[in-house]
UniProtKB/TrEMBL annotation:
Gene designation: purA_1
Protein name as catalogued: Adenylosuccinate synthetase
Gene Ontology CC annotations of this record: cytoplasm
Originating organism: Pandoraea terrigena
Source taxonomy: Bacteria, Pseudomonadati, Pseudomonadota, Betaproteobacteria, Burkholderiales
Role of this protein: Plays an important role in the de novo pathway of purine nucleotide biosynthesis. Catalyzes the first committed step in the biosynthesis of AMP from IMP.
Keyword annotations from UniProtKB, A to Z: Cytoplasm, GTP-binding, Ligase, Magnesium, Metal-binding, Nucleotide-binding, Purine biosynthesis
Residues involved in Mg(2+) binding: D38, G65
């Protein structure tokens, strides 16, 4: 049996990789999800945070989300970067983000109530776009076709590109709200009023949106301390030696251009965009870190080649989210152990969702479930030159041993004639339930090492770590790999 270093915390500084900048300057790494979101990026950032000075968001807004259990209690973060619980880390929200000021102020207040102040630690670009009441109303009314999260993100980015509608400015930014508060609030109110008048005054959200507008001045007061008017703020930090970790929201396959239109989010999720939405020159880029999960999921509609149960699963999850069927309802209706033994992949997918807790963090929607798609990962790794990959939820593969698969099914690529590749499904041979359980003790047996080698050859990138359980300590670092950072102490609260 070979042992590996097992630590919940790795510094990012690797002697080999600082190619782009002078020794006195810092660098930036970009961490992105490689699938359809919800790969457990926050958990990896939590483990890596000790090695970075700044953790920065560059895209998306309150459509992202992760729940963090801390010694001080549980908190759901949507817009603040994941490094919030690492007191040494400065946090930056870049101009590429769509900011929901109400929800952000609420996150800040929740933290304050837990005794965590972000004063002096949080900087928000003055050019971050503001989500406005009419964006939320439009998304709730029209986002169903795509299955959006209803946070107004799409309409917000659309208005940023539109700039002016009916002679009225519609792209308001945080700097506007804090610098020209009365004008900004009046404009938002006017656009929303026009919208509801055009609808004959029947919008079900009139009262809620009016309350949002009324509370905006108070919210602005909360956010004022964090406004960063200097567009060169992050660049200056890096010039002075700061090490930056960009945290991607959503994931590469949901990119507005690169993903499968129209079933995508409305921002750029690919790693290159970190340097546009994160307000830094790409000259400082050092490494691209990918995060994937072994039991895959997707929320909302759109292609999902390895989905267990295919179209039936997609339809079921769509109907379930419309009728507000979530974890509680599924638990009342189904026995996951029984479903797992069914020879219908749809049932196996339902069982895996229940057994591995795959429900939307913000929405509670049941997520569509799929087998690990290595063929797809290979394409993503290649397209974005991903340097190393963390694979989460590997322990969850153990459930397959209680299914009719009797092993781990995965979508792989196979070389056929003249080097062409074709996707194919195989039951991975050699892995046992016992091998997966051993990882939880910080050791991997030969079978697990064989699995790691197989995955690496398939995807064309080294695995830097395996998530073998929900706890921080169950993240196993594959330290033998040149790109995997070594273990270090954590500064976590
Ligand atoms: P929007 O980002 O709310 O406009 O939603 C567009 C699509 O992206 C929908 O299919 C959403 O379910 C999906 N999406 C948005 N944010 C996330 C996320 O954080 N995780 C997974 N899917 C997401």
């Amino acid at each position: 049996m070979t042992s590996v270093t097992c630590s919940a915390s790795f510094p990012a500084s690797s002697p080999a990789a600082d190619l782009a900048s002078s020794p006195a300057e810092g660098f930036a790494d970009v961490l992105v999800g490689l699938q359809y979101g919800d790969e457990g990026k926050a958990k990896i950032i939590d483990a890596l945070a000790a090695g970075y000075d700044v953790i920065a968001r560059f895209n998306g807004g309150a459509n992202a989300g992760h729940t963090i259990d801390t010694p001080l209690g549980r908190i759901a973060l949507k817009q603040l970067p994941s490094g919030v619980f690492h007191p040494h880390a400065t946090l930056y929200i870049g101009s590429g983000c769509a900011l929901n000021p109400w929800k952000l102020a609420d996150e800040i207040e929740q933290l304050r109530a837990m005794g965590i102040s972000l004063d002096g630690r949080l900087h928000i670009s003055a050019r971050a776009a503001l989500v406005q009441p009419h964006h939320i109303a439009l998304d709730r009314r029209g986002g169903g076709t795509i299955g959006t999260t209803g946070n107004g993100i799409g309409p917000c980015y659309a208005d940023r590109a539109l700039r002016v509608r009916n002679d009225a400015r519609v792209n308001w930014m945080l700097g506007d709200l804090l610098g020209r508060e009365a004008d900004t609030v009046a404009s938002m109110r006017e656009v929303f009023t026009r919208m509801i008048n055009a609808e004959g005054g029947t919008s079900p959200w009139i009262a809620e949106m009016s309350d949002l507008l009324l509370s905006l001045p108070k919210v602005a007061d909360t956010l004022r301390a964090y406004l960063e008017p200097d567009r060169g703020w992050l660049a200056d930090r890096v010039k002075q030696g700061a090490r930056v970790l960009f945290e991607g929201a959503q994931s590469v396959l949901l990119d507005v251009v690169d993903g499968s239109q129209p079933y995508v989010t409305s921002s750029h999720t690919v790693p290159a965009y970190a340097y546009v939405g994160g307000d830094l020159s790409p000259k400082y880029h050092r490494r691209t870190i990918g995060v994937a999960k072994a039991v895959m999921s997707r929320v909302g509609r759109g292609p999902f080649p390895s989905e267990l149960g295919g179209e039936r699963s997609a339809q079921y999850c769509d109907d379930a989210s419309l009728s507000h069927v979530g974890m509680t309802e599924e638990q009342a209706r189904f026995s996951p152990d029984q479903l797992l033994r069914s020879d219908d992949p749809f049932d196996v997918g339902t069982a895996l969702r229940m057994l591995t807790g795959e429900y939307g963090t913000g929405t509670g929607r049941p997520r569509r479930i799929g087998m690990l798609d290595l063929a797809q990962l290979r394409e993503v790794v290649k397209a974005h030159a991903v340097d190393c990959v963390y694979l989460n939820k590997v322990d969850c593969l153990a459930h397959y041993f209680h299914s009719t698969y009797q092993g781990v099914p995965m979508r792989v690529h196979r070389e056929v004639m003249s080097g062409d590749v074709m996707p194919d499904v195989l039951i991975y041979p050699g892995l046992t339930e016992r091998s997966l359980a051993l990882g939880g003790e910080g050791t991997l047996d030969a079978a697990m090492h064989g699995f790691v080698d197989f995955v690496e050859r398939q995807i064309g990138a080294p695995l830097a770590g395996l998530g073998l359980g929900p706890e921080r300590a169950s993240l196993v670092s594959l330290a033998a790999h040149p790109l995997a950072p070594a273990a270090a102490a954590s500064n976590h609260v």
